[in-house]
From TrEMBL:
Name the UniProt record assigns to this protein: Uncharacterized protein
Tree of life domain: Eukaryota
GO cellular component: centrosome; ciliary basal body; ciliary base; cytoplasm; intraciliary transport particle; non-motile cilium
BP terms from Gene Ontology: cilium assembly; protein localization to cilium
Keyword Ion transport included in the entry's annotation: no
Keyword Ligase: no
Coiled coil segments of this chain: 91-118
InterPro entries per the UniProt record, alphabetical: FT20
């Protein structure tokens, strides 16, 4: 009976060794699969990081271009505003000059009329 018990223990030990060996084989296979998945994941994330970095560079360049365009627009707008103000000043100066010339014309016409009246009085006398 002891012999049978020791044979059973030997059989059990062989079975355990076989199960452990199978389990270790499965673990190795799963470890390889996991390592392969991690390598694939790393490659994918590296690609995404590179794409985001390129996108960030493009966004930054576009941001700088937009800032330059806004600055140029503001400069043009300020120049237009200054030109408009200058034209308003010139218009106002010309209006004042026109009014002065109208007053002067009216005054000269009055003097002319007085001179005509005096000449008529002298002639008709």
């Amino acid at each position: 009976m002891q012999e049978f018990a020791s044979q059973c223990k030997a059989c059990q030990a062989k079975e355990m060794v076989s199960e452990i060996s199978d389990t270790l084989g499965d673990l190795r296979s799963q470890s390889r699969d996991f390592a392969s998945q991690m390598t694939s994941f790393r490659a994918t994330t590296d690609g995404l990081i590179k794409a985001f970095e390129e996108l960030a560079t493009l966004v930054e360049a576009e941001k700088l271009r937009a800032m330059a365009a806004r600055s140029a627009f503001q400069s043009v707008d300020k120049a237009r505003s200054a030109d408009s103000q200058q034209l308003q000043i010139v218009i106002r100066e010309r209006q004042v000059e026109l009014e002065r010339l109208r007053v002067e014309l009216a005054s000269l016409q009055a003097v002319e009329q007085e001179q005509k009246d005096v000449m008529q009085q002298i002639i008709h006398g």
